[in-house]
Amino acid sequence: MSQYDVVVIGAGPGGYVAAIRAAQLGFKTACVDAGVNKAGDAPALGGTCLNVGCIPSKALLQSSEHVHAALHDFGAHGITVSAVHFDAAKMIERKDQIVTKLTGGIKFLFQKNKVDSLFGRGSFVGKNGDFWQIQVDNKGEKSTIEAKHIIVATGSSPRQLPALVDIDNEIVLDNEGALNLTSVPAKLGVIGSGVIGLEMGSVWKRVGSEVTILEAAPTFMAAADQQIAKEAFKYFTKEQGLDIKLGVKIKQINRAKNSVTVEYEVNGESFSDTYDKLIIAIGRVPNTDGLNAEGVGLNKDERGFIVVDEDCRTNLPNVWAIGDVVRGPMLAHKASDEGVAVAERIAGQKPHLDFNCIPWVIYTDPEIAWVGQTEEQLQAAGIEYKKGTSGFGANGRALGMGKAKGTVKILSCAKTDRVLGVHMIGPMVSELVAEAVMAMEFKASSEDIARIVHAHPSLSEVVHEAALAVDKRALHG
């Protein structure tokens, strides 16, 4: 029986990073994962993020942006395109090539760092002295390994609507099905206006679908700062033509051979829409079934999340859990940083992870990003604050890119000027938000950002201008 210092269950962005960091710290490490490639004939590391989530969705978003630019934006640059032909299957093929390259990259990193990669589903067996025993089930072929420390990083799966319809990834799709359409549906329905719903809706709208998004909540993007959310809603609906309905109550879903009909209510009024494809994007649930958690007494809460403390320790000695299976935002970068932190804690180090400084990004066009508290949260907590805003409309770089839409908003403490939150909508704000994260991690003030020289012309000047505006000394607005 093989023995290890650390065994990680799951090779997503939390698990594989945790395994690599543990190996770097000198621990004999193995990572157990049952992921397979799109064809289903070979192992594929990387979890949901690399295979059917973050990475492939961004590839499709980029492709669809090029299509939209060719159809609508090139003329302003003096470029005339006589005909634009879009090949959805080719777009999917390109996406698959990127996925294959990156999942293969993890395999290389495991080899480089001497991490043993074990294919199969990992579950707890019990304890043998100081060692936890883990069963690895490779399609019925079972083996057992032992480790002093276990890191559970099994990720999450799409939330289903079993009472209404089953996901078949032919007509009714989850995120995986939405990433593998090889033709453009004439009418696409999306249930849920979260990250997945907005991003996938944007992709297929740009390449020709008529897209309707049905959202149960009465407020659009309730987790975001509402000034930014309202601006986003205007862009998505009035300018891009997404039909976003809020306060929707789904009554019935009927799947036919080549279509699906959704019956729903809005403010008591009944509607019935028929779509060629329907994406279910109503959130995700933790993958904790099959771990034999109950058999070894591993605590889970009522929603199925593994219970951990602030350091990701479970109730069992030397058993840790990270990423989507524990509390906190279901974000790949949060999982990765937790994985690094746990490996370092096992080594006796004392890393720190501040959830308030974890950035959020939605890769629509324009992009949306934020870190820290929203204006609504500050108001609810009774915290006195100052705010400064600046737009991309007069930014030279944004105008040159043809992307001069959006806003940067900085919130700081009224007494200390310490930055409390930064919220953005605009071009490449997924990159610009890193400056805000850095500022908040180092407890910077808005004046600190305002005193930093920002390159000209650059998009980052809008962040600089927003910081100046906090103290009512904006120079260009």
TrEMBL record:
NCBIfam families, sorted: lipoamide_DH (TIGR01350)
PROSITE patterns per record: PYRIDINE_REDOX_1
Record-level GO BP terms: 2-oxoglutarate metabolic process
A Pfam family recorded for this sequence: Pyr_redox_dim
Name listed for the protein in its UniProt record: Dihydrolipoyl dehydrogenase
Record bears the keyword Zinc: no
Binding positions (NAD(+)): G192, S193, G194, V195, I196, G197, L198, E199, E215, G283
EC number: 1.8.1.4
Residues the entry annotates as binding FAD: K58, G122, T154, G155, S156, D324, M330, L331, A332, H333
Family matches, as SUPFAM superfamilies: FAD/NAD(P)-binding domain (SSF51905), FAD/NAD-linked reductases, dimerisation (C-terminal) domain (SSF55424)
Cofactor needs: FAD
Disulfide bonds: C49-C54
Protein family according to the UniProt entry: Belongs to the class-I pyridine nucleotide-disulfide oxidoreductase family.
Compartment(s): Cytoplasm
